[in-house]
Design a protein that fits this description.
Elements: E1 22-24, H1 35-43, E2 53-56, E3 64-66, E4 69-71, E5 83-88, E6 94-102, E7 105-110, E8 119-121, E9 128-134, E10 139-146, E11 153-162, E12 166-169, E13 178-180, E14 183-185, E15 193-195, E16 204-211, E17 220-226, E18 231-236, E19 242-247, E20 249-255, E21 266-273, E22 277-282, E23 285-291, E24 303-304, E25 307-309, E26 312-314, E27 320-327, H2 333-343
Parallel strand pairs: 17-25
Antiparallel strand pairs: 1-12, 2-11, 3-4, 4-11, 5-10, 6-9, 6-11, 7-8, 7-10, 12-15, 13-14, 14-27, 16-21, 16-27, 17-18, 18-19, 19-20, 21-22, 22-23, 25-26
Amino acid sequence: MAGADGIFSDRGAIPVTAAGSAVFLALDRHGQGSKSISDIEAAFPELYSPSNTILTQDPGRTALIVGMAIDFNGQPTGSGVGADISFTSTPGQTYRVTYTRIGTVGCSAGNTQGGSNYGSSSVGAGSRGSFYFVAASTQTWVHFTSNSPSAAAAQGISIQQVPLGIAVQSSSSASKPAWQNPGIKFDGSDDYLVPDWKAKSGANCIIFQADVPASMAAPQLVSSVYGSNANFGIGFLETGKLIGQVGTATGAAIFDGTGVDNRGKTVVGALVINGATVKLYLNGSVVFSGAQNGNPSTTLNPYIGASLGSGVAGSFFGGTIRRIAYGQVAPTADKIVAISNLWAT
């Protein structure tokens, strides 16, 4: 992976065992699509060097497993049999599997041979399958099966480590946001997620795309950690104005100076700091720039869909978060514009 300063690089203290109830930070159509993740890749190409790829090549069809293509010609069928690709994995890291399917081919990943406890994909013939999983052991098996051996194969198999994080759901079923295409819907009363990310000293950023509620009785925060003069967050006033929080400065001090009312709109917002300067972006444009007053907490994970203050969630968001990214970097204005443009398409 990229160095420690990359987007999604810090896993924080959230245990690997929590991965089963995880939601990817770059919301990826419930684990089966790639548009928003492709957007992150395009906007941050330095995080995707060839060295990140574990197994990737696209040979022609071959017999069984040769290179990265599998042909099931005449082989046994059924969910319990098939072909496995084993590779060394890092617990807690996120991986993406892609392949092209010919005939009836299924694919899954797990920490045992033939296992499927990490995730799976089912796509139509000739389609490109893609799914993501968080590894829980040092060895992972990607398992391919077929129910039509006479004309079934998987080609162009790629298994790649990607710089994504996870966000853990609350243990309370009432506080779990729901997937509603095109994102995760928060109810505005008690829903939130806890990402596996923490700010560091110096440069940090939060970038999101969200559907803002049509009305808000009080400020609502898309993501924030608040308290002890170590704030870091972004959200909206009840008037629909974009606000930010950094260090000792609250939303009353960091806000969209143009006063745009975002209620009922889909927007891309970003809060970027470098240790000295704070910038607030709305749809790619700088709407606030000023001196940084204090620093964010480097020991607490922020909340998604709420503010974490003294261990208690508040200022709940009542809209839909389509995409959200955290980074221990301070993206330049042109990079924020690139992300905004990509996410708007």
